């Protein structure tokens, strides 16, 4: 338990609500959060970059990680829409798709969204091959990973608060 | 994290401000480093901002390249380093990198999720000082201050070297020596340009371990210098004696030595166009040499113009040069010229003029001929340099011009230029924006890389001009950049706007420009001559060279009369042996332009230039100028000339000195020559 608390992010996250709870509850909650966090990493949803974000969080910016992740959601939503539009237009503009892919890759990697980032690679490959079918399939995969991560993170942040 | 540090931009500002003023190395350094981060991805941007703040840097973020550019332009000394993403919707990150390098000469770090070798290589060739792969870790950001320090150190070192080397060298030898030192200077120039601009006024003291006090070679100072050199005889002029003769308190032998070196290059360039072939040939050395030559010439011209303009810091010139030269070759080569340029500018007009003229010569050799299609590394680089310088100079002018009412702008621009610069340079430019503008614009503003975009934007001239300039090899295109601005103006026709017209004309001149580019490169210094150039272009840039030469000479003759620039040109021409008759008002303009434009007659000029040096040019220019002057004549009635003339006089005085006119060519190696080649 105490090990899981080592993560600065968790400690910070807990700093506010944490100390209001009775000790037993705190421990329990702390355990839950820690274990969820660990599983996110273990299952490959998050990578080390997420820890970088957690380390950036401080008293001056106590919600920094959540703030950044929220930015990621809104930006991704926009990107996903653009990609979908590009995929349905005829002829497909693969260069633009590739651009979008790069953007998505960049932003997902910067928050440590490992699986989402990884899913971008085949999408990029299909783009360069100008394989519309492949692109569409790969994009479905990206959307799926993105949705899963978003769900998990939302749960996580709720717990942390 | 320290709350105060982490979140105190204001406190940072003050600390960073003190950091800047205090020669770059304060106790808090690198805290307070002023970083501009550009990325269209809001997530990344926010993360970077937070990371940089954690490093105790002062962060400004923007999500569009255009915004970043305007921020940088609006506050030239407001930032120490730029971090930019590669893939951005409104502008390619590499393009932004180029602009920044040319105009502000700030260290730029590129970043991208793309870690492909090609992309990283592109970053290197475009002059990025580092390339970060996303996701960026804070550790990678902690050390970015090293790039700032390194750049400054290089500048300083170049400065040092140029000073010490100069003394021991004979004029002939200096060519060679110049290369090495030019390289240094180039680097130095680039970084120094920016630094110098900012710090020039601030501290001259060597309190900073990195910086040396910089001497501004004002018109008066340069005149004194030239007088001293003439008195001693160019061959016998050694820094020590010059220093004694000048009797200026506070001036060191090193200052004089480096200035003399530049001057020699300038003269050499004026007379020895033959250098071009070497330069152009594109051997690596050539580019350097060319660059060097260009630089020298440019330096003289550009620097002066720039100096005059006060806008185009040497670094812009340097960057221009670097861009031109450097794209294909390592920056080092460019640096040299840049440095010279910078110094040259400090001469302010006189030098510029010379440079221009010289460049004209040179470029024609090198670039002009080559430009047309010589993609040699040299050329592009040179052009780039030239363009840079020219652009920077031109930018100043151009910007003004392009901005809009060319005429109005030009005038204002020119005026500004005239005022800020040592008039001499502006010769053409300020004059009324038309003719006067050219000279000055050519010389000066051209340097600003921005010119390209500005110019193109304004006039509609394709940005390529600028960008082409940057392309290392773009061969002509790169050259074009430089000339773009000026040429655009020139081509435009009446020239009056120089910029505006020039710019517009550029497109038409497109092909021309390419030549011009090469020429321009050399003639970057000429920037002001762009105005003239435009006209000249019509005549075919060749006149450029001549013009420049002529100009410089004339400059000396005429003193600040409104026609000054014209007079200068005329006098120069006359001096040259041209039919002075031509030097009538019209001619004057042309002459002025011509001087700047010396690049005229690429081929012929080169040959002539080489032999006759200024004279030939003058002659060539003369003819051309005539044609041009007429055009100009109307356009600018020397409105601005008066101001320019001051500089012009110096220029002409310098030109007169020309013994080294041939050497002037060297100086102009970079694009200046292209001007000539630009057979318009």
Automatic annotation (TrEMBL), chain A:
<comment type="function">
    <text>Functions as a two-component phosphorelay mediators between cytokinin sensor histidine kinases and response regulators (B-type ARRs). Plays an important role in propagating cytokinin signal transduction.</text>
</comment>
<protein>
    <recommendedName>
        <fullName>Histidine-containing phosphotransfer protein</fullName>
    </recommendedName>
</protein>
<feature type="modified residue" description="Phosphohistidine">
    <location>
        <position position="102"/>
    </location>
</feature>
<keyword id="KW-0902">Two-component regulatory system</keyword>
<dbReference type="GO" id="GO:0005634">
    <property type="term" value="C:nucleus"/>
</dbReference>
<dbReference type="InterPro" id="IPR008207">
    <property type="entry name" value="Sig_transdc_His_kin_Hpt_dom"/>
</dbReference>
<dbReference type="GO" id="GO:0009927">
    <property type="term" value="F:histidine phosphotransfer kinase activity"/>
</dbReference>
<keyword id="KW-0932">Cytokinin signaling pathway</keyword>
<keyword id="KW-0597">Phosphoprotein</keyword>
<dbReference type="InterPro" id="IPR045871">
    <property type="entry name" value="AHP1-5/YPD1"/>
</dbReference>
<dbReference type="GO" id="GO:0009736">
    <property type="term" value="P:cytokinin-activated signaling pathway"/>
</dbReference>
<dbReference type="InterPro" id="IPR036641">
    <property type="entry name" value="HPT_dom_sf"/>
</dbReference>
<dbReference type="Pfam" id="PF01627">
    <property type="entry name" value="Hpt"/>
</dbReference>
<dbReference type="GO" id="GO:0005829">
    <property type="term" value="C:cytosol"/>
</dbReference>
<dbReference type="GO" id="GO:0043424">
    <property type="term" value="F:protein histidine kinase binding"/>
</dbReference>
<feature type="domain" description="HPt">
    <location>
        <begin position="61"/>
        <end position="156"/>
    </location>
</feature>
<dbReference type="GO" id="GO:0000160">
    <property type="term" value="P:phosphorelay signal transduction system"/>
</dbReference>
Automatic annotation (TrEMBL), chain B:
<dbReference type="InterPro" id="IPR017053">
    <property type="entry name" value="Response_reg_B-typ_pln"/>
</dbReference>
<keyword id="KW-0238">DNA-binding</keyword>
<dbReference type="InterPro" id="IPR011006">
    <property type="entry name" value="CheY-like_superfamily"/>
</dbReference>
<keyword id="KW-0597">Phosphoprotein</keyword>
<comment type="function">
    <text>Transcriptional activator that binds specific DNA sequence.</text>
</comment>
<dbReference type="Pfam" id="PF00072">
    <property type="entry name" value="Response_reg"/>
</dbReference>
<keyword id="KW-0804">Transcription</keyword>
<dbReference type="InterPro" id="IPR009057">
    <property type="entry name" value="Homeodomain-like_sf"/>
</dbReference>
<dbReference type="InterPro" id="IPR006447">
    <property type="entry name" value="Myb_dom_plants"/>
</dbReference>
<feature type="region of interest" description="Disordered">
    <location>
        <begin position="159"/>
        <end position="209"/>
    </location>
</feature>
<dbReference type="Pfam" id="PF00249">
    <property type="entry name" value="Myb_DNA-binding"/>
</dbReference>
<feature type="domain" description="HTH myb-type">
    <location>
        <begin position="211"/>
        <end position="268"/>
    </location>
</feature>
<keyword id="KW-0010">Activator</keyword>
<dbReference type="GO" id="GO:0009736">
    <property type="term" value="P:cytokinin-activated signaling pathway"/>
</dbReference>
<dbReference type="InterPro" id="IPR001789">
    <property type="entry name" value="Sig_transdc_resp-reg_receiver"/>
</dbReference>
<feature type="compositionally biased region" description="Basic and acidic residues">
    <location>
        <begin position="159"/>
        <end position="175"/>
    </location>
</feature>
<dbReference type="InterPro" id="IPR001005">
    <property type="entry name" value="SANT/Myb"/>
</dbReference>
<dbReference type="GO" id="GO:0000160">
    <property type="term" value="P:phosphorelay signal transduction system"/>
</dbReference>
<keyword id="KW-0902">Two-component regulatory system</keyword>
<dbReference type="InterPro" id="IPR017930">
    <property type="entry name" value="Myb_dom"/>
</dbReference>
<feature type="compositionally biased region" description="Polar residues">
    <location>
        <begin position="179"/>
        <end position="189"/>
    </location>
</feature>
<keyword id="KW-0539">Nucleus</keyword>
